[in-house]
Amino acid sequence: MSTTKVRLTAAELANPRTLIPGELFDRLTARVAAEENLPGPRAERVMEQALAFLAACALNPGAGLSPSRQVDPGWHAFLTYTLEYAVFCERVAGRFIHHVPTDTPGAAITDPAAAIGSTVEAATDGLMPGAALRLHTEDGGRVFLKALPADSPAVRLYERERWAGEVLPDTVPAPRLLWSSDAGGWISLLFEYVEGRAADLSPGSPDVPAILTTVAQLGHLLAPSPAAVGPLMADNVDGLLVKSRHLLAKPPGVLPYRDLYAATLGGFDVADLAGDMLLHYDLHPGNLQITAEGVRVIDWGFAAAGAAWIDAFMLGPRLIEAGHSPFQVEDLLAQVPSWEDAPPSAVDGLLAAWTLFRVYKAMHGPDDGREFRARAAAAGRVWLAHRTGNA
Fold first, then answer.
1. How far is CA 48 from CA 18, 74, 147, in A?
2. Residues 250, 159 share a domain
3. Nearest one of 125, 132, 182, 175 to 300, comparing CA atoms
């Protein structure tokens, strides 16, 4: 298998038409529209998905991917521009991506990755860095491919998610990890595709009791942890505490509610978070997908061993953000058996660190994420003030 370093950025993969110059994209789209008798918007879609497919080929050399009948015309159109196509292949893959017909009767597929088929669709939802692609298989199914340059600072999240995918029992309501690769200078993960929607945590939503049941179920299925060794909760919380200390060190007046956070963190001991349950740690509406089969928990990039009550805790600020009062949140979390074992000082300390991390991101993070970080931080502060008697 080739080990050529792939020359792609996550932004290009999220918007495949940016993989080529705009003028060339317009020419190719016009050709597809004329040759296939398609309306302009449909021809653009075909061309976008053809480029996404070629990006997937670049990310997965030797995987045997092939285009669907709907997307193949876009590839054929690009091939007629031989010079531009050759330059494109060299830039994104470091090699020529050949068009090899799969019309040999009875041809066998020996690589399981070769069965992931055909149409590739860019998925732009989510907060994590990297490329996200929905792949439509020859048999009409779908799988989900995510990939990130191996030299990205966020690669540990992908490595953690791969580890979790390898150790999670089949009984856990999460998408199965089907395949992974470190080829081409990228880490790539292939999962079952989850057909669902983000959870609705607002008061009165039927999703809320279903999610509380799922969190309780995780407690039964993942305690003790199915992994003998692995990341610990302290590994996750250390990052929160670094940002918390940075904010608390600011001059007076810079950090609102500084005294509340400082007093709460003063009595916080990370050792109180230790435990033997494999936790998701990042439960929020986007990672809680509502499907026809029930709740599916996705994106295990922060999975770690810790105290069983922590996953229930993660729902608290999200429930407040969705419109619940702190009193209602405490009543709802009490429905998860592990919550009664949560030490108040540990809950408060973790909540202060969780909130301050989002305050930091709202102040210094990427512009497009500051607003939702600020909303989460406000919800965390409301819950913390309630719990500490400072409401």
1. 9, 8, 18
2. no
3. 175
Cis amide bond preceding 224, omega within 30: yes
Number of domains in the chain: 2
263 and 234 within one domain: yes
Categorise residue 140: left if φ over 0, alpha if ψ from -120 to 50, beta otherwise: left
Of 192, 227, 256, the domain-final residue: 192
How confident is the model over 294-344, as pLDDT tens digits? 999 999 999 999 999 999 999 999 999 999 999 999 999 999 999 999 999
The CATH number that applies at residue 140 is 3.30.200.20
Residue 228 φ then ψ, to 5° = -70, -35
Q: Is 5 a member of any domain?
A: no
CA distance 135 to 140: 10
Q: Are residues 217 and 80 in the same domain?
A: no
Same domain, 202 and 161: no
Token pair of 96 as six digits: 């020529």
Same domain, 338 and 373: yes
CA 147 to chain centroid: 10
**Of 192, 213, 239, the domain-final residue:** 192
119-162 pLDDT, tens digit per residue, is: 455 554 555 567 788 777 666 778 888 888 888 888 999 999 99
Judge contact between 86 and 96, C-beta under 8 A. Answer: yes
What is the residue range of 338's domain? 197-387
268, 245 contact by CB (below 8 A): no
| pTM summary value | 0.73
Give the tokens for residue 73.
């015309």
Q: Which residues pair with 145 in a beta bridge?
A: 133, 190
DSSP codes joined into one string, 276-330: SEEE-----GGGEEEETTEEEE---TT-EEE-TTHHHHHHHHHHHHTT--HHHHH
- CB under 8 Å, gap of 24 or more: what pairs does 35-40 form? 35/73, 35/77, 36/73
